[in-house]
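Weekly sync, protein design subgroup
Attendees: M.S., D.O., the rotation student, P.L. (late)

Item 1: inverse folding check
M.S. brought a backbone from last month's batch and wanted to see whether the design step gives back something sensible before we order anything. D.O. pointed out we never logged the input encoding, so this time it goes straight into the notes. Structure tokens as presented (354 positions):
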């Protein structure tokens, strides 16, 4: 395996603040990390491993280790982002052992061309894109971000500044950047599919309804979250999680057991999953637009203790509930859990939830 490694030092502040900030973030989202010494952590981010350690002078020593150059770039960006949050205008100094070679565009960015569009049932739009150099996107992460330019404007794509960091377009050029799942990805053919749940409320749905083959847009990724490993799994989610659950199930060893509990509106209940494993797929239909996922999950109490991994994705408030439920009532260790907010309910006006 080819490893990409970078080291950095953060000076100009007490580096323990950075470590504490990251620990707080990881604990509030129940993400797994290990402590190293008194002031250090090891964080397996999903796309690579970050190690942070503070010496007696308060200098934070950082190392990032990944399988791909694009993932290394993203880990550096993740550190830059948190250092910027911490700096509050102060001049903190983050020095990397080596800069990435000069780049015009971030290595985790691609332009892609829409080549096919089809409807799957009443509520999903499957888009097939063609792109060069998808190898990195097929490893270590199930997800990516669509980069949608503002309506009727020539896109301005992200670029790399002289410090080796991403400059995102702002103001009237700002991009809409929702996360999606690679439903299928084939780097050899240079194509991937994404299934967009047409919930009827957002910019992405409106774009996908109108999109025509030939259109070019941007993507960045991959994002963290990989196919969970283990002999027995518990998977759960709503329509937004269906593409990820389907991809996970279709890539399982045939001997894998467990449950996949999926709640959808009546229009999405026929979404096809090619299940060659022993995972039992249980589908529930939402009544009158109200999710019953919390009750469905708690009714399964206690979940069999032999699940090697528990996975959930759905609406933010439900995800918060499930995170606590897995941790406090089911005592799953954080390394065996993935719980993600895939979307946030901000209004239900004009929604097509059924
Ligand atoms: C890692 C990850 C992977 C994802 N993969 C997929 C995927 O493969 N397919 C997929 O369809 N979605 C997926 N999602 C969810 C998707 O990113 C969100 O639904 C996102 O909000 C869509 O953006 P938008 O532009 O449509 O709406 P936004 O601009 O984000 O929101 C506009 C309005 O739509 C509402 N809204 C957003 N999502 C929903 C919903 N599901 N139901 C009802 N109302 C909603 C919001 O409350 C808001 O009022 C994923 C999310 C994450 C974090």
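Designed sequence read out in the meeting:
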């Amino acid at each position: 395996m080819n490893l990409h490694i970078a080291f950095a030092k953060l000076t100009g502040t007490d580096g323990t603040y950075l470590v504490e900030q990251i620990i707080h973030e990881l604990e509030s989202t129940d993400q797994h990390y290990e402590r190293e010494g008194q002031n250090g952590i090891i964080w397996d981010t999903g796309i690579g491993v970050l190690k942070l350690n503070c010496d007696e002078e308060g200098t934070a020593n950082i190392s990032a280790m990944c399988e791909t150059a694009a993932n290394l770039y993203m880990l550096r960006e993740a550190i830059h982002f948190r250092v910027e949050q911490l700096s509050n205008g102060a001049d903190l100094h983050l020095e990397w052992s080596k800069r990435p070679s000069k780049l015009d565009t971030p290595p985790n960015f691609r332009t892609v061309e829409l080549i096919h569009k089809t409807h799957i049932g009443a509520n999903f739009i499957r888009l097939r894109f063609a792109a060069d150099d998808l190898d990195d996107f097929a490893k270590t992460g199930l997800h990516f971000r669509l980069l949608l330019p503002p309506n009727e404007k020539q896109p301005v794509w992200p670029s790399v500044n002289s410090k080796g960091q991403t400059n995102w377009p702002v103001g009237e050029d700002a991009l809409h950047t929702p996360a999606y799942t690679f439903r299928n990805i084939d780097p050899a053919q240079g194509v991937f599919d994404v299934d967009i749940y047409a919930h009827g409320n957002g910019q992405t749905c409106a774009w996908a309804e109108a999109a025509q083959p030939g259109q070019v847009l941007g993507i960045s990724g991959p994002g963290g979250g990989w196919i969970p490993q283990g002999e027995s799994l518990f998977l759960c989610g709503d329509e937004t999680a269906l593409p990820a659950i389907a991809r996970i199930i279709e890539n399982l060893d045939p001997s894998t057991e467990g449950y996949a509990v999926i709640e959808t509106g009546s229009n999405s209940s026929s979404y096809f999953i090619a299940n060659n494993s022993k995972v039992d797929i249980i589908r529930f239909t939402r009544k009158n637009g109200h999710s019953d996922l919390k009750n469905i999950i708690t009714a399964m109490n206690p979940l069999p203790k032999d699940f090697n991994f528990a996975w959930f994705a759905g609406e933010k408030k439900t995800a918060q509930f499930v995170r606590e439920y897995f941790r406090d009532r089911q005592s799953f260790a954080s390394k065996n859990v993935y719980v993600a907010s895939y979307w946030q309910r901000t209004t239900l006006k004009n929604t097509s939830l059924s």
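Discussion: The pocket of flavin-adenine dinucleotide is lined by residues 143, 178-181, 194-197, 199, 201-205, 223, 240, 243, 340, 342-347, 351, 353 (CB under 6 Å). The helical segments are 16-28, 69-87, 203-210, 242-250, 293-299, 316-329.
Action: P.L. to compare against the previous round before Friday.
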